[in-house]
Specification:
The structure is a single chain. This protein has 499 residues and is an alpha+beta fold. The chain has 4 domains: 88 residues, Uridine Diphospho-n-acetylenolpyruvylglucosamine Reductase, domain 2, CATH 3.30.43; 118 residues, 2-Layer Sandwich (Uridine Diphospho-n-acetylenolpyruvylglucosamine Reductase, domain 3), CATH 3.30.465; 110 residues, Alpha-Beta Plaits (2-Layer Sandwich); 75 residues, Alpha-Beta Plaits, CATH 3.30.70.2740. It is 34% helix and 19% strand. The protein is built from 17 helices and 19 strands. The strands form 4 sheets. Strands 12, 13, 14, 15, 16, 17, 18 and 19 form an 8-stranded antiparallel beta sheet that branches. Strand 8 and strand 9 form a beta hairpin. The radius of gyration is 23 Å and the shape is globular. The two termini are 28 Å apart. The N terminus and C terminus are likely disordered.
Length: 499
């Protein structure tokens, strides 16, 4: 399917002649690499959410900040929209290009500028891979905590845009909790510094506002991240359950006991079997669900926490609890979880990865609801969770070549997100809204809240040129969505006017 831009804050954009734009931009920034031939543009037509594809007008690959500034000033003068892209691993269509816009690819900003082991910080460019930061810090006994499953490929700039997390975000936080300072450029090329290398900065917390803004407020050109000392010890327990609900209840019991694991992950039987066949991690393929619980810290604390967690898991109904016997087995346990997505891709022609967050206490009920939706729509769902923080990733299996299956996959995905909202959760935990969840924003937020979002957007980007048509719906869109959808027993927006 193809997504076409159709609305901004200030109305439709001007259509530009592509050849003229390329000529003018080359004259403005002579040493900027610009791709504009059709075959060169195809690799950039989507991000990790491949269901939506649009060929951009052109692709720019800058290497220096002054090139980005010149491009943004040109785009602002000409009213040409700009979509920023990192490594293209996003899963919500946030980096989906526009056929009338410039795709600004920041992958060549890939240098670690400074690593300070005494201050436990690193200054990096936005195209640096997440894992590369930890690899560079490892000789100093340090690492960067957020670890998305795509960390081998995803860029730190993209992590900032989506406020990415990973399996260790329960204890160590999301991207917003692990960065100190951002250097950004606004749409008119103005340079701003958000945050500081100190523990806090005066004024409004614009660093937190910018993190997770999905490229709608400005372009990141440098990130200062926190580095943590590697834990003295880390142990992983694998618990098997004969019932998914029991596994969900065990999560709440562990947190309720005051243990904050480094990671607490859950997989259901379909995900277990797919991962085991792919990775051979040693998972019990007859289990209905497994929990992976990692505790880390000093040796004595880890030993005590392992004993406590094992007792809690057994009392919650675990049929088996195994402690990884060595570091190699610990790594295999996590490899199975981190490769769950590609593993599921081996057993289905296509899958649709959702991302919602719920209160931990609601986990058993939501799993039951997902199972009912799976039966209603006739599509299998493999469940993979950051269970400790309630961030779930149901993988909806379908065949895009089978008539109607793509539409049914999108429908069940929307229903799952709305289920998350109904139990007090959110429509995203770390993948962002992008193009994928823009209609469900109408379920999550009311008109007054959306007006505040639009006002914040306009403060940074008054013409609405940065990544338009993503993340924040117009009230008009929500009114149209509401005409087909009921929100708490009434239409989400009685008014029809555009903001």
């Amino acid at each position: 399917m193809s997504y076409h831009y159709d609305e901004t804050i200030d109305g439709p954009l001007v259509t530009h002649d592509k050849a003229a734009v390329v000529t003018q931009l080359q004259a403005r920034v002579p040493d900027l690499l610009i791709l504009h031939e059709q075959e060169d543009l195809r690799p950039f037509e989507c991000d990790g959410l491949a269901a939506y594809r649009t060929t951009p007008m052109l692709v720019a690959l800058p290497e220096r900040t002054d090139q980005v500034q010149a491009l943004l000033r040109f785009a602002s003068e000409q009213r040409i929209p700009v979509v920023a892209r990192g490594s293209g691993t996003g899963l919500s269509g946030g980096a989906l290009p526009l056929e009338k816009g410039i795709l600004l690819v920041m992958s060549r900003f890939n240098r670690i500028l400074e690593l300070d082991p005494e201050a436990c910080t690193a200054r990096v460019q936005p195209g640096v891979r997440n894992l590369a930061i930890s690899q560079a810090a490892a000789p100093h006994g340090l690492y960067y905590a957020p670890d998305p499953s795509s960390q081998i490929a995803c860029s730190i700039g993209g992590n900032v845009a989506e406020n990415a997390g990973g399996i260790h975000c329960l204890k160590y936080g999301l991207t917003v909790n692990n960065i100190l300072k951002l250097e950004i450029l606004t749409i008119d090329g103005e340079h701003l510094t958000l945050g500081s290398e100190a523990l806090d900065a005066p004024g409004f917390d614009l660093l937190a506002l910018f993190t997770g803004s999905e490229g709608m407020l400005g372009i990141v050109v440098e990130v200062t991240v926190k580095l943590l000392t590697k834990p003295q010890s880390a142990k992983v327990l694998l618990a098997s359950f004969d019932n998914v609900g029991k596994a969900g209840a065990a999560v709440a019991q562990i947190i309720g006991a005051g243990v904050i694991p480094g990671g607490l992950e859950m997989m259901d039987n379909l995900a277990i079997r797919a991962a085991e066949d792919f990775i051979h991690a040693g998972y019990p393929v007859d289990a209905e669900a497994i929990l992976l619980c990692e505790v880390d810290g000093v040796e004595s604390d880890v030993r005590e926490d392992c004993e406590c967690v094992e007792a809690l898991l057994r009392s919650a109904g675990a049929t088996e609890v195994r402690l990884a016997k060595d570091e190699a087995e610990r790594q295999r346990f996590w490899a199975g979880r981190k490769n769950a997505f590609p593993a599921v891709g081996r057993i289905s022609p296509d899958y649709y990865c959702m991302d919602g967050t719920i209160p931990r206490r609601e986990l058993p009920g939501v799993l039951k609801g997902i199972a009912e939706l799976s039966a209603e729509y006739g599509l299998q769902v493999a469940n993979v969770f950051h269970a400790g923080d309630g961030n779930m990733h149901p993988l909806i299996l379908f065949d895009a070549n089978a008539p109607g299956e793509t539409e049914r996959a999108e429908q069940i995905g929307a229903r799952i997100l709305e289920l998350c909202v109904a139990v007090g959760g959110n429509i995203t935990g770390e993948h962002g809204v992008g193009r994928e969840k823009i209609n469900q924003m109408c379920v999550q937020f009311n008109s007054d809240e959306l007006k505040v979002f639009h006002a914040l957007k306009a403060a940074f980007d008054p013409e609405g040129l940065l990544n338009p048509g993503k993340n924040i719906p117009t009230l008009h869109r929500c009114a149209e969505f509401g005409s087909m959808h009921v929100h708490h027993g009434k239409l989400p927006f009685p008014e029809l006017e555009r903001f």
